[in-house]
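A protein record pairs a chain with a discrete description of its three-dimensional fold. The shape at a given residue is found from the number at the same position. Here is what such a record looks like in full:
>
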Amino acid sequence: MSETRRSYPDPENKYLKTANDGTTTTKLPAILPNIPWSDFKLGLGKVKPDEKTGKSKIYSDVVMKGSNWVISQWTSMNVVLEGVADAVLDKPPRMINGRPERRIGHDFARIGLPKTSFAPIFETLKSIFPSILDDISATRGYYWLNASWGVTGSPGKFINAGENKVRHNTFKLYEAMKMISGSSSMGVAAIAMSVSNGSEMKGGKMVPANSKYELSVKIHNMLHTKKVPYHSPPQAASTGFEVSDDMFDQAEVLEPISNMGVMMTDMAGAFSNVAANPFFGSTSGVTNNALLGQNNDRLLL
């Protein structure tokens, strides 16, 4: 699939509704977990450079592909938009490299994706990109991860029932957070997903720089149905462990830092043959032939 940023109409009009202006809307049968897994496959688009952020990255869109239709966004029930405390929301941004930092509750949010909808998708991606879930926390029923609020020039939209059950929309994540006031919002959400990797130029082509693949998620729409007390696991520092006297007796003595410079000089001088000197030269790189570096279309069963 050469173009995966847009959806391809469904001729039978079963999963997608196409308006006169060409815009498409996902219909209820295609909303996870309603759609049977046998009705679609995971599709990965052609590898593209990340031209918007200025970072040396390449990415490939993850889409839903039917027999003759493609949906570029994933819509699911029971998605959780985690609330942020007012003390965090109202904290002024720091300046980093001359720019205001990206802030949770303003530019991105932490969301919970239900395993009933996304476990088969994530496990399939993991079978090809083993590191894809490394930065994602998991609880009994949810995957928790950070997601950008929309894309550049097109922010996400939060939809809720206002006074007298009137539909209310806001494109400001900050306003949505204020409305749920520290709780979390459960509802129906449409997200876009892509697999990315750092990149480098080899043989005139952009190829993966390493084996670390990441999942990037963007929230396009969120329909609030109810407040819930759900929150992601706390991201705490690792804990220590008790060191007993018997355990400590097994520890070897290390030289103080003040003596390390002398030791390194003596060791380097002991190698008269430059070729045998372990402090000379560097190891060669390893060519990464991972799937993301192959500029072709793929379907993941």
Q: What stands out?
A: Confidence is low (pLDDT under 50) at residues 259-301. The first strand starts at residue 16 and ends at 18.
